[in-house]
Amino acid sequence: MEKIDPRIEFVIYRFLHGKLSTSEREMLESWLREGKHRELLEKICNKENMLEKSFYFDRLNRGREKTWLRLERATGLRRRVVLRRWTIAASLIVPLLIGALYLNERQITSKVPGRQLERIVPGISTAQLYLPDGNVVDLGKDSVCNLLLLKGGRFVNERGTLTYKGDSSGVKVAQYSEVRIPRGGEYKVVLPDGTIVWLNAESSLRFPTLFTGKERKVYAKGELYFDVKHDETKPFIVEVEKDYAVRVLGTEFNLRAYSGSPIATTLVEGRVQVKGMDNIVLLSSGQQALEVPGTHDIEVFDVDVAPYVAWHEGKFHFVHAPLKDIMEELARWYDVEVVFENPAVRDECFTIEMQRFDDFNKVLRLIERTDIVTISVDGHIVTVK
């Protein structure tokens, strides 16, 4: 079994994701000049031996970043994962391809000896619509309905999307409706102006059936992704709290505003203005406005937006995230309760990428394979030790 240079492993990962730079391609081509290396790469690229997704973890250990890489070597005859740990510079984050070569789904879902895990299913398209007249309507991906409003206009619900339709030209007073998403849910809403909003679990959006005046204002809680319809004459404003609002003309951004956590606005494209209690900041594409914990200040950071918008693309993407934050997010989507019996592991940091509709138990086992934590499941109670 040949030992592969960590630099080559990283280049192979980049190759699999179509992100090779010119220098990395030259490095890979040089390595492939040896026939046995080309044979190995062919096995790595064999779709029958790859998961459709990649998982990767890394751990912070006393100020040093360590990346864990699972990569089965050479033959592919042994259907198991070889776990190897190696240290890299803090500036280089090499993903862990969990079974990217030879780990199949049957292995991931196999039972851990001596412990039975119950099946926990991912979230679904579900929501409740609170109408202006006080009525509440349950919404779902498979439900189709056409709701007429007393003062004009109608809601159409189909395939997990709620759309407001109708001519509001004769409506003088805006009617407010609200969409609320429970734990284990998500939904898509199309507003009267054509703005599209995706709502994550435990989120809500209050909006009018008619945007009157000189602005389009909505009220949000939780996590939402906005694709705002451009209108130079009427700015779009998302109000989170009395002293926090996002102002845009037309753009795409992610807003995360869960109770008890700092509010974060991540801009995908365009420009937005974020107003806090003590200051106002302007964001350009690829920037994030983040509340400073314990204060009312807002700071601006240049970020890779991918981890922050992954949920709206059907993925989870955590980068150097404490285990407590990861489990909180997973608990919200899979509708489970997480208990930490060992407080010391709450701040262990991981990097994970996975599909939002993956089996929850797969994720737990992958985390356990790092030998940092032990996880047990009793009904919908997840205990981390």
TrEMBL record:
Domain of life: Bacteria
Domain FecR protein per the UniProt entry, residue ranges: 178-273
Transmembrane segments annotated in the record for this chain: 86-103
Gene3D superfamilies in the cross-refs: 2.60.120.1440, 3.55.50.30
InterPro entries the UniProt entry points to: FecR, FecR_C, Ferrdict_sens_TM
Domain Protein FecR C-terminal: 315-384
Swiss-Prot/TrEMBL keywords: Membrane, Transmembrane, Transmembrane helix
Entry annotated with the keyword RNA-binding: no
GO molecular function, one term: sigma factor antagonist activity
Record-linked PANTHER family: PERIPLASMIC SIGNAL SENSOR AND SIGMA FACTOR ACTIVATOR FECR-RELATED, PROTEIN FECR
Protein's name according to its UniProt entry: FecR family protein
